[in-house]
Design goal:
alpha/beta, about 55% helix, Rossmann fold
Length: about 240
Amino acid sequence: MTTISVDDIVTLGRQAALTSTVLAKWAEHGTPKQREYLHGLLTAETESRQASRRHRLMRAAKLPTLKSLEGYDWSQVSFPPDYGREQLISMDFIDQAQNLVLYGDVGTGKTHLAIALAAAACQQGIPARYFTTASLVMHLRRAKDHNRLDKELTLLARNKLLIIDEFGYVPIDAEGARLLFQVISDGYEKRSLILTTNLEFSRWGTVFGDDTMAAAVIDRIVHHGRLLQFRGESYRVKNALMK
């Protein structure tokens, strides 16, 4: 009787793309114990693949730090009347390609929440990507300078959730404004956007340097979007060593 080694099984496993027909046939002819063993094998393989995917998505998201929704302080967040914390945590806004604008005072948890939502999306197998506004503009400008803007836009479009953090914190020139507008416009009704800012909508024209472009961006974001408002003392100031 030929002895089958572990290496033999691993080698075949790497080559196998299992089909329903073969699985059904072997399961049907197996004993209850054999079927239980086969089920355990397939369960372990599925869980391993899901864990690997979550790990890949977390790396690809380029989060500046790891944040979680667990223990998050919601006391400074005001939700719209038709939307609450439970709906947000369910991530239903991504399924419906809806947007979120996290608006309010500096240091009140906007970035923390945006990163935590991106991390939660990755854990659910949903591709997400984080940028500050400045880094996104720089990323797109570099791609354009190297004649690969279309490729980068295609790669960005693979994400179901895009985070644009710190909108309005630094000025954007005319080219940067056009590039940012293109990303937001391309994602309209296809992907979700979370944008954090301390600027009210009426001041967005100062960021884009063009009121018409700002109005077009706002129109696309708010059509399928919700505004979460943040008010209170800066967490960093409140917990600062320097008083």
